[in-house]
Design a protein that fits this description.
four-stranded antiparallel β-sheet, 150 residues, 9 strands, mainly beta, single chain, 0% helix
Length: 150
């Protein structure tokens, strides 16, 4: 087989990444696979500098398929905020091709706690915050009951 002059190793139909709870689901579909060894999923915080997060082997027999194949993987430790994912395909002669980049907005869940004690009280009290990063402004409003007028 003349690998240097053969057509592209895959025909990519779709590639997407979506937040799902505490992870990001990454899915793609190929129309055909030829000499396809594996895929690499890469992630970037800025869309410029990518690092590998996982690889997925070809589902085609010996890397070949003439029918569409669905692939999926999960980023179990996504970055907070906007991240960029891209698909890299590598064939059996170690040639590779990058495909489109997709972005994901992932909100890291925060375990914020807020407590006031002692409660009830009539003068001084303590407020404890945890799970908040950086500086935040907090406004406390106290409602004092009016005396009975009757």
């Amino acid at each position: 087989i003349d690998y240097d002059n053969s057509p592209l190793p895959i025909q990519l139909l779709t590639f997407n990444a979506v937040p799902n709870g505490e992870k990001v689901d990454i899915k793609w579909e190929t129309a055909t696979d030829q000499n396809n060894a594996y895929f690499t999923i890469e992630r970037s915080p800025d869309g410029q500098f990518f690092s590998e997060i996982t690889t997925v082997n070809s589902k085609g027999i010996n890397g070949n398929s003439s029918v569409s194949l669905n692939y999926q993987t999960t980023d179990a430790t996504p970055l907070g905020g906007t991240s960029y994912y891209r698909l890299k395909q590598t064939d059996y002669n170690n040639k590779f091709k990058y495909f489109n980049v997709v972005s994901v907005d992932y909100e890291v869940s925060k375990n914020i706690t807020f407590s006031i004690y002692p409660n009830p009280n009539s003068s001084e009290f303590t407020i404890d915050f945890s799970g908040i990063e950086n500086n935040h402004e907090v406004q406390i409003t106290m409602h004092v009951p009016l005396p009975n007028r009757g």
